[in-house]
Structures are given as C-alpha cells and as structure tokens.
From TrEMBL:
Essential cofactor(s): Mg(2+)
Record carries keyword Metal-binding: yes
Gene that encodes the chain: thiE
Family to which the UniProt record says this protein belongs: Belongs to the thiamine-phosphate synthase family.
Pfam families to which the protein is assigned, alphabetical: TMP-TENI (PF02581)
Catalytic activity entry: 2-[(2R,5Z)-2-carboxy-4-methylthiazol-5(2H)-ylidene]ethyl phosphate + 4-amino-2-methyl-5-(diphosphooxymethyl)pyrimidine + 2 H(+) = thiamine phosphate + CO2 + diphosphate; 4-methyl-5-(2-phosphooxyethyl)-thiazole + 4-amino-2-methyl-5-(diphosphooxymethyl)pyrimidine + H(+) = thiamine phosphate + diphosphate; 2-(2-carboxy-4-methylthiazol-5-yl)ethyl phosphate + 4-amino-2-methyl-5-(diphosphooxymethyl)pyrimidine + 2 H(+) = thiamine phosphate + CO2 + diphosphate
Domain of life: Bacteria
Residues that hold 4-amino-2-methyl-5-(diphosphooxymethyl)pyrimidine according to the record: Q46, L47, R48, L49, K50, N78, T117, K147
Binding residue positions for Mg(2+): D79, D98
Domain Thiamine phosphate synthase/TenI: 16-197
TM annotation in the entry: none
Function: Condenses 4-methyl-5-(beta-hydroxyethyl)thiazole monophosphate (THZ-P) and 2-methyl-4-amino-5-hydroxymethyl pyrimidine pyrophosphate (HMP-PP) to form thiamine monophosphate (TMP).
Protein name: Thiamine-phosphate synthase
Length: 233
C-alpha cells in the first residue's frame, strides 16, 4: 500500500491488509509476522493493540515495523497519530471515535497514509474521501471474534464506492478465504484479515497463501465493469 490514488487505467488487483491480533508479545510475534510476509503478497500491516500502554505500543513498533518496512510493506498504527509519527510508521488508521481525520493529517503530514473507518455509512465515506483520506474502510461484512461488530455492511456498498470514487476501499470483518469472493468481485481494493491468517491451522504463512489464492480465484465482476463498461452482474 502506497500513498496516493491508484491509476484507473487498469483496475488494481485486490490485496491483503493484514491486521495484528489485539494482544501480542512483540518478540514472540516477530517470527510469525516474518512468516506471513514472506509467504506472499501483503500490502500493509496494521498494528492494532487493545488495552495496552503507549510504551507497549512503542515496543511493538520497534520490533515489528522494521520487519514490514524492510519488505516494502506499509506499517500502519491504529488509533494514535502522534505515536505513529513518533515511531516512524508509514501511516495511521483512525476510527469514528478516535482522532478526527483532519487532526490526524496535521499530525502525520501530507506524505503519510491516513485511513478512516466508515462502517456501513456512505455519508461517512464521502466525507472522509472529500477531506483527503488515503483509504476508507467498510465493515463488518461477516461476524468476527476479534471485535464486537456494531455495524454490518453488504458487498453492494463496495460496488457503489468503486464505481463512484478513486479513493481505495478496505473491506473488514470476519473475512476468510472461503467467503471473500463476493467482496473481491464487488471492487474491494484491500481485504483486512486477522483470524484468517493468525489462526490458520497451517500457520500464518499458509493463511496468507490461502487468502491470496482465494483472491486470485475470485470472480472479476468489477474488473469487467471497469474495462468494458458493462455490468457483469
């Protein structure tokens, strides 16, 4: 994932947006992250820790950020733009109850990635896109064990956004290799995954490989719509 809008000359392939488990020990997790990133294409890693101190976040950034950046994978911190800038992260992801987008942008600067959670709201997404967000995140599309989902999104939301806006969109919430095809077909630029990779029985490397294989095998309704102007249904 790089800052800026993707070229519309050719529809970009959907890619993985890897989110960390909410609780982890950096030293023990580092080899798992290496395995995941070395197993196939990953656009970015979001460090999303819950109920931890700023120092815990700093230690995790110190251990994990270089692993991602050495592989040209963007490293994004959840919730805290000040810590993201301090720790040399490539960007920050903010929710609707976190630092407002405009404040996050001022803190991070124009060259950083700033993404915004928009739940299932077209209005929130339009506002974020017009203000300059580098991506918007929609969800949850499926039930998830990692976070209580107060909002439910449908694939049609992705299709609407992809037809209207150039700003990339991320689909999140319970996404697995078995259920991701409709999201890819609808035009998701990125699939945010947690359990599908970290809880995969074959390990995180197998999880990444399985997700990328499922993305590659998914129907290409959106690509057909963009390239020939027809509705592939």
């Amino acid at each position: 994932m790089s800052k800026g809008k993707p070229s519309q000359a050719e529809p970009a392939a959907c890619r993985l947006y890897l989110v960390t488990p909410p609780v982890l020990e950096p030293a023990a997790f580092a080899p798992r992250l290496i395995e995941a990133l070395d197993a196939g294409d990953v656009a970015c890693v979001q460090l999303r820790l819950k109920n931890c101190s700023d120092d815990d976040v700093r230690r995790a950034c110190d251990a994990l950020r270089p692993i991602a950046q050495e592989r040209d994978v963007a490293f994004i911190l959840n919730d805290s733009p000040r810590l993201a800038r301090e720790m040399g992260c490539d960007g920050v992801h903010v929710g609707q109850t976190d630092t407002p987008y405009r404040d996050a942008r001022k803190i991070m600067g124009n060259d950083a990635i700033v993404g915004v959670t928009c739940h299932d709201s077209r209005h929130l997404a339009m506002v974020a896109g017009e203000e300059g967000a580098d991506y918007v995140a929609f969800g949850a599309f499926f039930p998830t064990a990692t976070k209580i989902a107060e909002h439910h999104a449908e694939p049609d939301l992705l299709r609407w956004w992809a037809e209207l806006m150039e700003v990339p969109c991320v689909a999140i919430g319970g996404i697995t290799a078995a259920n991701c095809a409709p999201l890819v077909a609808a035009g998701a630029d990125f699939l945010a995954v947690v359990s599908a990779v970290w809880d995969h029985p074959g390990g995180p490397g197998a999880g990444v490989a399985a997700m990328n294989a499922a993305i590659a095998a998914a129907p290409t309704d959106w690509v057909a719509t963009k390239t020939d102007g027809t509705d592939a249904g």
